[in-house]
Amino acid sequence: MNAGCGSGASKMGNRKILVVDDERDMRIYLSTIVETMGYEPLVAENGEQAVLGAQKTPPGLILLDIMMPKIEDGIRAYQRFKTDQQFSRIPIIVLSAIAQKTFLHAIRVLGPQIGYPLPGPQAYVEKPPDADELGRLIRNLLAP
To answer: CA dihedral defined by 97, 76, 63, 123, rounded to 10 degrees?
Structure first.
């Protein structure tokens, strides 16, 4: 694993985007958007698969669903991505049916448990995402 992948991987031409969602239809929808934009989607059905997949093939950006089979699955994956040095610089767009303030509260609660506050995501999009809006966010976050 390249330890430097998290340090600016999105700025160095990494064309891979990790799509994490437990719903098959949403994974297909998001992957189609990603492919249409010229990026390569890497797909995971849950937080554990997402972390293992990112370790194997570091993405330039992560599209992360929060509400997955286990209620804490998306939050824990987010925590792992933001606290692990090899992932911490990879931009994350959170996609969720829950309100942004609920998500932000959940990550504030995790702060004391890990000893420091978790940063917020680079973007938060409520489901279902608008393809054009999501495309603009992806382009802005991966712009050189």
So the answer is: 70
